[in-house]
Write a structure and sequence with these properties.
The structure holds two protein chains of two kinds.
Chain A (H helix, E strand, L loop, with lengths): L14 H27 L9 E3 L5 E3 L4 E4 L7 E4 L19 E7 L1 H4 L9 H12 L4 E5 L9 H9 L5 E6 L1 H5 L11 H21 L2 H11 L2 H11 L12 H21 L6 E5 L3 H8 L11 H12 L3 E4 L1 H5 L17 H15 L19
Parallel strand pairs in A: 5-6, 5-7, 7-8, 8-9
Antiparallel strand pairs in A: 1-2, 3-4
Helix pairs in contact in A: 1-7, 3-13, 4-9, 9-11
Chain B lengths: L5 H16 L3 H19 L5 H18 L7 H14 L20 H17 L8 H9 L12 H9 L6 H38 L3 H36 L17 H5 L4 H22 L6 H19 L4 H28 L1 H8 L2 H18 L1 H4 L2 H43 L1 E2 L2 E2 L4 H22 L12
Antiparallel strand pairs in B: 1-2
Helix pairs in contact in B: 1-2, 1-9, 2-6, 3-4, 3-5, 4-5, 8-9, 8-17, 8-18, 9-15, 9-17, 11-12, 12-13, 13-14, 15-17
The chains are: A alpha/beta, B mainly alpha.
Chain lengths: ~375, ~475
């Protein structure tokens, strides 16, 4: 290589200070400028002030509360909660005679995080049912940012509303939060390597808190190949879609089955049917929609397993995976880093849910049959 | 770890630190041997025994030649090649003859090149002296060049470690610059081109008409050479840097290959150490044998073209065990021998002076550069794919689409590479107070800092394992 510095052997004394200064200055300028641009591009606005802990310590939303919040990837969204603290346009007062009432339970996906109320699947389904059912239909959305386990208590709250149907919606991240199988103790070397890996992960997580890292991650995840590679190497939902299932994956599905048992126990004797809606995450939607083949991965497994577990317990399953598969590049129906569905994703969920609610299989909604008897 | 990963960098840094504790040849040799064996243990998937036996056999052959019990290297070289073909499970052999157990072949090709070189040079008496077991092992298993080269002559390896001096601060700075550049190329740029290539391929299959197919096909074909270059040369930058830190000067393997204005010139700039090795041990002996057997001057050109074909066919065929790689070899051989034949005919027709004047004209070189890139990019299709997949792609694009894609690549490469050459030359000419700004250590430090920041961000964000080095597979 033709290197003009080849002939030099000593570094001038001033360069011992100047060169580190150059590195520091360039780093500061590049990182600072990039962080500023990223903050402008992915700015956050407002605080979510509507959540609170109830007497039992569970996370609930305050009655008659409104918050305007913009998370990094979302638009500015109005979160308006009714007199019971549910994200619904209608009051939770006693059900008017002749009205069909559907209660939604679940976590942030049910609540419609990052999506305007009128664009949530709850609102879209309500509108569609009102058109189809020839009688008033209202949806009370009890979904809130919380855990899947707390949905057993939410079922009790939902039953107080005298609903005709209860709908539980969940995504893989709801199961990821459940307890993982304990890993066997390894040798000292393995433990040491594991602790190094944890330290590296923590460093990454700290770095991610900067908007610069967030922006980088956002743009990299727009590329489906990067999304797949990341999923295969370190995807946190991989356990739920791996073939064969890992012990962790098995345990998470078993945990879900036990939560569902709890919900069904609360519903026993009420005569209220439960509909369970499984929504794939972004990577699974991308795989099924783009017909990608990933090693030891079955992207449709989450939807199938949830449907199977639900049907075994007498619930009505809705697997939205095929609906997402019918959209080209379904990964665009989700926020790349946040992983929640955007307005387009909620439209797909609404369509799949509506098909199930109007297919005649749920007696309480027998009146809701689209013209010609075919579900839309 | 056998890639352009953070863990490989850390491993290299640790070995460099240990190596520099005591600046004695014996100590550095011991550290290098221990590091190379540790590296093998950490990276090997499956048993190490067949690989170590292969290395041991090579040493046995070398000792037989050094002791004078064997005069010609032909027998041990043939044996090593046959064992190599067997261990690499070439598809033309029946699968029943292969070993049933899982074993590593990490760096086997590169070990073969080094062993054949030792056997041939020991036989011709050009080695500096008898090769001891430690020197042999550090040379054949050197962790910095085990996985994907570069292929170093033993004489250069031996000389570089004997004459190595402690690194000055400026040398360390240069090494860091080299490593950062390599890390950036392999971890940030190569994945980008890989993603472009993969995405374009899927779009070819989904394209509605031949025009779209041609566009996406052109992108897929043209993106791959850039990916391969960044992936391979990035890794080579890293290992050359690490080797320098432990007192070994590895040979350069790349010299801006896409600036080559002929296919022969391209192979003098791409995987240089492989081309040089093959020139020394295949092209030259083949030429000499042919000329000795049929000494007529009128046949010299024919032998030269034929030897070129054979040499570069071997280059291609060496890359893999399937018929696609054999065809890749045929295309490389065809490219180089056609280029050679053209040069001979051009000189015969115009005379040396006029031919040289023509080939040094700017427009001629620009077009030749585009043509060279297009041919290389096209031949690489048999490198990243296979016959059935390529047939599917061709069917999706149609013959009009394939032809249009090649024309598109040629035009884009001709214009793009010309613009790059002009821009690069202009950038290097920028001066401040009589000093070339781009060569100032302040500019270089600033530039490296930017590259390091981008590479680190990419690694932190992508959560992927370090990219595999494509040439690791060979």
């Amino acid at each position: 290589m033709n290197d003009p510095l080849e002939s030099e052997v000593t570094l001038p004394r001033r360069d011992w200070i100047l060169l580190p200064l150059v590195v520091f200055a360039v780093t500061s300028i590049v990182v600072g400028a990039a962080e500023l641009v990223a903050r402008a591009e992915f700015r956050e606005q407002g605080d979510f002030t509507c959540d609170m802990h109830d007497a039992a310590g569970a996370l609930r939303d305050k009655p008659n509360c409104v918050s305007f919040v913009k998370y990094a990837e979302s638009p500015l969204v109005e979160y308006r909660f009714n007199d019971c603290g549910y994200r619904s346009a209608k009051s939770c007062a006693a059900k008017p005679p002749g009205t069909l009432r559907v209660a939604l339970i679940g976590t942030s996906i049910s609540m419609g995080l990052n999506v305007q109320y009128t664009e949530t699947f709850a609102s879209r389904t309500e509108d569609a049912l009102n058109r189809i059912c020839n009688r008033p239909v209202e949806i009370q959305n009890l979904g809130t940012i919380g855990s899947l386990k707390s949905q057993i208590d939410s079922t009790v709250s939902a039953l107080r509303l005298a609903p005709d149907v209860i709908v539980l919606t969940l995504m893989p991240f709801d199961l990821q939060g459940l307890a993982a199988a304990p890993t066997g103790a390894g040798s000292d070397l393995r433990t040491w390597i594991k602790s190094l890996q944890v330290a590296w992960l923590n460093l990454k997580l700290r770095a991610r808190k900067t908007k610069l890292m967030f922006a980088a991650e956002h743009y990299m995840f727009l590329n489906e190949q990067t999304l797949y590679r990341t999923f295969l190497s370190s995807g946190r939902s991989h356990d739920l879609m791996s073939v064969p299932l890992t012990p962790d994956g098995e345990q998470r599905y078993a945990e879900f089955a036990s939560i569902l048992d709890g919900i069904m126990a609360k519903l026993q004797g009420s005569g209220v049917p439960l509909v369970v809606v499984a929504v794939p995450n972004r990577v699974a939607a991308a795989i099924v929609s783009n017909h990608a083949t990933l090693e030891a991965t079955d992207a449709a497994l989450f939807g199938r397993r949830i449907a199977q577990i639900s049907a075994q317990r007498g619930a009505f399953p809705v697997d939205t995976t095929p609906e997402f598969a019918s959209y080209p590049h379904a990964e665009r129906l989700f926020y790349p880093v946040d992983n929640h569905p955007n307005a387009g994703g909620h439209e797909v969920i609404a369509r799949a849910l509506l098909k199930r609610l109007t297919d005649g299989s749920i007696p309480q909604l027998a009146a809701c049959r689209p013209a010609g008897g075919q579900s839309q | 770890m056998a890639g352009a990963s953070v863990s490989f960098l850390l491993f290299g840094a640790a070995v460099a630190l240990l190596s520099n504790i005591v600046w004695r040849l014996a100590w550095r040799q011991a550290v290098l041997l221990a590091a190379s064996l540790t590296f093998l243990l950490l990276c090997a998937e499956g048993s190490l025994l067949p690989l170590l036996a292969f290395v041991g056999l090579g040493y046995g052959g070398l000792k037989l030649i050094e002791s004078g019990r064997l005069r010609s290297p032909a027998a041990p070289v043939t044996a090593m090649i046959l064992i190599f073909v067997w261990l690499k499970k070439y598809t033309f052999l029946p699968s029943s003859v292969f070993l049933g157990t899982s074993y590593t072949t990490l760096g086997l090709s590169y070990i073969l090149f080094r062993v054949i070189h030792l056997l041939a040079d020991a036989s011709s008496g050009t080695l500096p002296g008898p090769v001891g077991p430690v020197s042999y092992l550090t040379y054949t298993l050197n962790f910095t060049s085990l996985v994907a080269g570069p292929i170093q002559r033993y004489q250069d390896f031996d000389k570089s470690r004997r004459e190595a001096r402690r690194l000055s601060v400026i040398s360390v700075g240069r090494v860091l610059e080299r490593i950062v550049t390599g890390f950036f190329k392999a971890n940030a740029v190569a994945p980008l081109f890989s993603a472009i290539h993969t995405r374009a391929l899927s779009q070819v299959l989904a394209s509605a008409n031949w025009q779209a197919g041609a566009g996406y096909g052109a992108v897929a074909i043209a993106a791959y050479p850039f990916f391969l270059y960044c992936n391979f040369s990035g890794y080579i930058d890293i290992v050359i840097g690490i080797a320098q830190l432990i007192g070994i000067r590895l040979p350069e393997n790349f010299d801006r290959p896409f600036s080559a204005d002929s296919f022969i010139g391209f192979w003098a700039r791409w995987h240089i150490t492989l081309s040089t090795w093959l020139k020394t041990y295949i092209y030259n002996p083949l030429m000499m044998a042919s000329m000795r057997r049929f000494p007529a001057d009128s046949l010299a050109a024919f032998w030269s073209v034929s030897a070129c074909f054979v040499t570069f066919f071997v280059v291609g065929a060496w890359h893999g065990q399937t018929s696609a790689f054999l065809f890749f070899g045929v295309l490389q051989g065809l490219g180089v021998s056609t280029n050679q034949l053209y040069e001979i005919l051009l000189t015969a027709r115009l005379g040396k002076k006029r031919a040289r004047r023509l080939t040094s004209e700017s427009l001629y070189r620009t077009v030749s550069r585009g043509l060279t890139f297009t041919w290389f990019a096209l031949t690489l299709a048999w490198f990243w794919s296979d016959f059935p997949s390529l047939a599917r792609l061709a069917a999706a694009m149609g013959w009009r689409g394939v032809a249009s894609a090649l024309v598109l690549i040629f035009v884009a490469a001709t214009v793009g590479l010309a613009v790059w050459e002009v821009a690069r030359a202009a950038m290097l000419r920028i001066e401040w107070r009589g000093h070339a700004i781009w060569q100032s250590r302040y500019t270089r430090t600033a530039w490296c800092t930017v590259l390091a920041l981008i590479a680190i961000t990419t690694v932190l964000v992508s959560e992927q394992p370090a990219p595999e080095i494509v040439y690791k597979a060979f």
